[in-house]
């Protein structure tokens, strides 16, 4: 008993130097490190899954989109600011005369005493004595600029017309001769293309967004610009039913739309707005005079200034 106790004591004392195991017969065995090797080896049949590192791309893209949004918002604000601080000028333009309705337009413009532009078609002038007469009235009014809207209006075959720059230039030159012989003093060639919303005015260069680039119509627009023509499109149109020219929107609705576009800086030029209208929508049948008069007085009350296209 005493022997066993003394052996246990020896084993306890050995703890400081290293582990010792007490065997069943009372003898001691030192702790063998190699016999309890706990190093870990991977069985060969096991599939090692690679650690997935999630790419940060998505996060980065989100950040970029966010930055872009902020930039866009700032840009919109800037544009809003731009037009709200500018002198609001509207250019009333009337296309396709002389027609039934042209006299009503002239009457209202004269009553109101405001400048405007009438883009007329050469071949319409000689179709009736009344057309010839209204053309003369328009060119003799100092507040009305009668400008070029082609001689033929492309005979309404626009694609074919604009595929040939030579024909386009000669057609507009033909109408220009009519304007020069009318007695109206014009210091420049001001025109609007038939069926196309195109700008070539100084540095302002804009092709019709509805026409595919593959048609290369810009060759015709550029040919006109090289001939000295200033080409004017429009910012918004008072649209109508093609069958008879009935206007879709009321003058009040038009004012709202015009201000909406203007306040968002969506006009082609800062502080300026070109409104496209058509003579034949102001016929007596649809109270043309009243509607035009009402739109003009609404615009005036709203602080708009009026000018003709040569000052654009
Ligand atoms: Zn037209």
CATH A-level architecture of the largest domain: Alpha-Beta Barrel
Strand content: 15-25%
Category by helix and strand content:
alpha/beta
Helix content: 40-55%
Spans with pLDDT under 50 lasting ≥5 residues? Answer: 5-19, 31-44, 75-81
Compute the number of structural domains.
Answer: 2
Termini gap: 122 Å
Radius of gyration: 42 Å
Describe the structure.
With 312 residues, the protein is of the alpha/beta class. It has two domains: 2-33, no CATH class; 87-311, Glycoside hydrolase/deacetylase (TIM Barrel, Alpha-Beta Barrel), CATH 3.20.20.370. Helices cover 40% and strands 15% of the residues. The chain has helices spanning 2-13, 57-85, 102-112, 122-125, 129-140, 158-162, 165-180, 218-226, 251-263, 288-301; strands spanning 20-22, 28-30, 89-97, 116-120, 144-148, 189-191, 199-201, 204-206, 229-231, 236-237, 272-278, 305-306. Strands 3, 4, 5, 10, 11 and 12 form a six-stranded parallel beta sheet that branches. The protein has a two-stranded antiparallel sheet with strand order 1-2. Strand 1 (20-22) and strand 2 form a beta hairpin. Helix 7 (165-180) crosses helix 8 (218-226) and helix 9 packs parallel to helix 10 (288-301). The longest helix has 29 residues, at 57-85. It is globular. The model is unreliable at 5-19, 31-44 and 75-81 (pLDDT under 50). The structure holds zinc ion (ZN). Zinc ion (ZN) binds next to strand 3.
